[in-house]
Specification:
two-stranded antiparallel ribbon, mainly alpha, globular
């Protein structure tokens, strides 16, 4: 696929010109104006694309179960640990560094996504997924055996190394399993896993920490991961691919450069304004070093025969626009996931469980619209569906600052319900669409690039919006009616948890200050939605150049099925 694919060559029967429904590659197939015949074509190193990993609905079921269990391991991890932090700190100490329990895991997941994507394209999905599950379970065992906070943080990083393989490879296999028309089914199931984990994680974590021991939070991963591992080993059968002429080479220098660049950048973003001031020597040094390493990474990747992050990821308009749009999604998601619970507890006066419910309603509507999105994009196309979704999200985010003070809990809950519905209509069509524009041999790299951009966007959003919120609070509290009030968001939230220590006027003033800070964060999130909308309108082609695929599983089983036989849009 070239970087200028704006339309598709579709025959009258809805199939790509030069191909027949369900047929593999034929002489002359894919030679239309949108076909890829250059070095960036959507083919593997041997010039072919492997068929989907499984070919029958019955054979898919245990693999889908394995994917859902694997995704559950990664999805529930953050929420289940967060509720046990007081017990962990009370047992191991290390209060000043406990935030690295989350930051270290996030760093490891983010910086390894590109590597695992490339490895899955080179050596297959199954070995990468098996390695990821095993590494995650080893990290879980080590976390349960941790003797101090430093050891626990180190073992959480080991968990994150496995989590990176889980997140990227599960999404890639999901696209391999189903043809385009059926992909929303598996994606909706995976979205349901995330929604369930968001609700169940805090509950399970609280129960284990309160009535058992916090170490069981990690040990509970073992039976889940063992079942997922057995199902993958037993039931995931990837087809044999022709042996390439040359032995595949792994770009270890590029992988190391990407890992180092991402680690320094994300450390600067996560710790800036928390462990040290933004304009301090550590922040400036980390940002400068990450910029230098980024330049070195570009040089290494341009010279590599098989780069970890190939240039075509950014040269192709479809992939580049989706990367930017989902990076902006990661940015805007910080507003509801990080700041809404604080708003619900500090401004509305809700307890932790009720505050969690205000947020969780978003995870209820998201999978519903994601599952139904194919009925929209099959009619109007991927880009327009995503534009409608992010446009609606933009309006909803702008409506948040208009909520009355202090308001009723159902006010933000309703907005989050609508926001989840809008984002389900935005994210899934883009993921399904971009995965459908590449062949098997490039799908892992493409999926990893999308997830990597979303994770980086989330890290940037946490840093930027955290600085914005604390800046607003500092300005509001500069002329506070009473002296001795806290001046950052976390300290204000803790003070409002025990309002008996404050006067009624001081309590109201602090609540209004938090309200103003969160309102500005939501305006910033609306700005991120506007950036996503701009990326889709200006960069994304009107029609995604989708590779024609066999619709029936039996057709996919034919030798050579799934090869690039031309392109068609989702609206055909």
């Amino acid at each position: 696929m070239s970087g200028t694919d704006d339309k598709s060559d579709v025959g009258a029967d809805g199939t790509a010109a030069g191909s027949t429904p369900g047929a593999g590659s034929t002489p002359g197939a894919g030679t239309g104006p949108d076909a890829d015949t250059g070095p960036d074509a959507d083919t593997g190193g041997d010039g072919t694309n492997a068929p989907p990993a499984l070919t029958t609905p019955r054979g898919r079921r245990p693999v889908v179960a394995a994917l859902m269990l694997g995704m559950a391991l990664a999805a529930i991890d953050g929420t289940i640990v967060s509720t046990a932090v007081p017990q962990i700190v009370g047992d191991l100490g290390g209060f000043t560094v406990f935030s690295w329990l989350f930051s270290g895991y996030l760093l490891a997941v983010t910086v390894t996504l590109p590597l695992y994507g490339k490895l899955s394209d080179t050596f297959g999905r199954k070995p990468v997924l098996i390695a990821g599950i095993i590494l995650f379970l080893i990290g879980s065992i080590l976390c349960a055996a941790a003797w101090n906070m430093a050891a626990l943080i180190a073992f959480r990083i080991v968990q994150g190394l496995g989590g990176g393989a889980l997140q990227g490879t599960v999404q890639t296999i999901a696209a391999d399993l189903y043809p385009l028309k059926e992909r929303p089914r598996i994606q909706a199931k995976l979205s349901t896993v995330w929604a369930t984990s968001a609700v169940a994680g805090p509950v399970v974590g609280g129960l284990l920490a309160g009535y058992a021991d916090w170490r069981w939070i990690f040990l509970i991963n073992l039976p889940v991961g063992a079942v997922a591992l057995w199902l993958v080993v037993r039931h995931l059968h990837e087809p044999a691919r022709p042996r390439p002429a040359a032995r595949p080479r792994v770009d270890w220098a590029g992988a190391l450069a990407v890992f180092a660049t991402g680690t320094l950048l994300l450390t600067a973003l996560v710790q800036g304004g928390v462990a040290w001031p933004w304009l301090s020597a550590p922040s400036l040094g980390l940002f400068g070093a990450s910029a230098a390493l980024a330049a070195l990474t570009v040089v290494i990747e341009r010279r590599a025969a098989e780069p970890i992050i190939p240039g075509w990821v950014w040269r192709r308009r479809t992939i580049a626009s989706v990367n930017l749009a989902l990076g902006a999604l990661g940015l805007l998601m910080v507003a509801p996931t990080v700041f809404l619970p604080t708003y619900a507890q500090s401004v509305l006066g809700l307890g932790p469980i009720a505050a969690g419910f205000v947020l969780s309603v978003m995870t209820l509507s998201w999978p519903v619209t994601a599952a139904l999105s194919d009925r929209v994009y099959n009619r109007i196309g991927f880009r327009l569906t995503a534009v409608i979704g992010i446009g609606a999200a933009l309006l909803i985010l702008l409506a948040f600052p208009l909520l009355p003070y202090p308001g009723e809990p159902w006010h933000p809950a309703l907005l989050m319900l609508l926001l989840g519905a809008a984002l389900g209509l935005f994210q899934l069509p883009l993921i399904v669409g971009v995965q459908s524009t590449v062949g098997w041999a490039e799908r892992g790299t493409t999926t990893a690039s999308v997830l990597f951009c979303r994770q980086v966007g989330q890290s940037i959003g946490a840093a930027v919006f955290g600085a914005v919120a604390n800046g607003v609070l500092a300005a509001r509290l500069l002329d506070a009616p009473v002296a001795g009030l806290p001046d950052d968001l976390d300290a204000v939230a803790r003070a409002l948890e025990d309002p008996g220590t404050l006067s009624a006027a001081a309590t109201d003033y602090l609540r209004r200050a938090v309200d103003a800070a969160v309102d500005l964060v939501y305006i910033g999130a609306a700005g991120a939605a506007a950036l996503a909308l701009l990326a889709l309108i200006t960069l994304a082609p009107r029609r995604f150049p989708v590779i024609a695929e066999p619709d029936a599983p039996e057709a996919a089983a034919a030798p050579g099925a799934g090869a690039t036989a031309g392109r068609q849009d989702a609206t055909s």
